[in-house]
Specification:
Helix content of chain A is about 25%, strand content about 40%. Chain A has about 210 residues and is of the alpha+beta class. Classes of the chains: A alpha+beta (about 210), B mainly alpha (about 180).
Chain lengths: ~210, ~180
């Protein structure tokens, strides 16, 4: 039996080093390629989270200017007279939304929260039978960039609403003649199968005479 | 004669009272039936509207243009509300008519949205098939290039690098040393 012994001279040492370097370079190329592919996949196949929200605002109609303004809100309601106000809803969400605006009269001390709606036991619902409902498409990217518009498919309103104080409301408020009118935005949750409070609400502080 | 006339009068009177009673009972039954029918139809319309909204959400996720469909759905919502108001006012015939109109419009809308989703799905299939075929063609092309050009080049380079490497056996080394001596 012949024994094979490699003569590891200078040249062969250099060659082994070369092979080591080649392996490192190969590994680096493969690793870099994987990182590049993963980055491209992440950019193309995942979308950045959109700024997803709904907007509810109250407006007053200015007949002299023929425009809607977010000022000059009423502070007093006469019991023999209605106060007209307009609300507007914008869908800046990422899906179709089926909205409902609920108008509630509650005590001045009632806390308005983003997390929960005013409980039915602590408020008097206006227009409980004839609710305000609307289905809105979401705003496109181009539409989102246009501010101060009141007419578009993704906008509901301005919608007129009459505020009033009747005997039932007086009875609910008791001796106190100051109160809050809360406008809550609810949207239909298709998985839950019912309207849910969106966390968007605006209110006016009023008193009646 | 008077006796017969009196009997006839009582008979007619009773018949009229009975007829009124039967008519009232019939009317009440019809009214109750209409109320029930209107209530069921309004509920059916509301359920269909929710189904349409779910479909619209699905379509939106697939980047389908649905604005027109959303506006139609919103119009149908108004019709359902009108039906509901008519129902609350006790106008059941109007409520039934409005609810039926809403249901038929929602059925049409459901078909339209489903068609849009199917079209989008088919288009996606075609695009994916084209991408698959093109990807396959590129892979085959790369395979051919590798076999015909890169592999021979690699072999040539390998030969250049390692072809000069010599294996020297120890006994040959001893022989050479002896020969020198």
């Amino acid at each position: 039996m012949k024994k094979i012994k490699l003569d590891i001279n200078k040249n062969s040492k250099i060659m082994f080093r070369k092979r080591e370097v080649e392996n490192i370079v190969k590994f680096a190329i493969v690793f870099t390629s994987l990182v590049i592919v993963a980055t491209f996949a992440a950019v193309f196949f995942t979308s950045l989270p959109e700024n997803d929200f709904s907007e509810l605002s109250l407006l007053m109609y200015d007949s002299t200017e023929n425009s809607f303004l977010a000022t000059n809100y009423p502070t007093v309601i006469n019991t023999d007279q209605n106060e007209t106000i307009f609300f507007m809803v914008k869908n800046y969400g990422s899906k179709v939304n089926y909205y409902e605006v609920r108008v509630k009269i509650t005590e001045l001390s009632q806390i308005i929260s983003l997390d929960f709606a005013v409980p039915p036991s602590e408020c008097y619902m206006l227009y409980a039978q004839n609710t305000f409902e609307k289905i809105l498409p979401s705003a496109t990217k181009a539409e989102k960039e246009v501010a101060k518009t009141i007419e578009a498919d993704y906008i509901w309103g301005p919608t007129l609403i009459s505020l009033y104080v009747n005997e039932n409301i007086k009875q609910f408020l008791g001796e106190n003649n100051q109160f809050k009118v809360v406008f809550e935005l609810w949207s239909f949750d298709t998985t839950a199968g019912q309207f849910q409070y969106s966390g968007v609400a605006v209110f006016l502080e009023l008193s009646y005479l | 004669m008077n006796h017969y006339s009196q009997k006839l009068h009582t008979f007619v009177k009773n018949t009229i009272i009975l007829s009124i009673f039967i008519s009232l009972a019939f009317l009440q039954t019809t009214q109750a039936q209409s109320q029930l029918e209107a209530e069921n139809l309004i509920q059916e319309a509301q359920e269909k509207l929710i189904e349409v909204i779910i479909l619209l959400e699905q379509a939106y996720l697939q980047n389908i243009e649905i604005k027109a469909s959303v506006l139609v759905a919103d119009n149908v919502l108004d019709i359902i509300k009108e039906a509901d108001i008519a129902f609350q006012d006790g106008n059941y015939t109007t409520a039934i008519g409005k609810a039926n109109l809403a249901i038929s419009q929602l059925n049409e809308l459901t078909d339209d949205i489903n068609n849009l989703i199917d079209t989008k799905r088919n288009n996606k299939k075609i695009i994916n098939t084209i991408i698959g075929v093109c990807g396959g063609a590129v892979l085959v092309f790369l395979g051919i290039i590798t076999k015909k050009k890169i592999y021979p080049w690699y072999k040539e380079k390998q030969q250049e690098e390692y072809g000069k490497l010599q294996i020297i056996y120890p006994d040959t080394e001893v022989k050479k040393a002896n020969e020198k001596n």
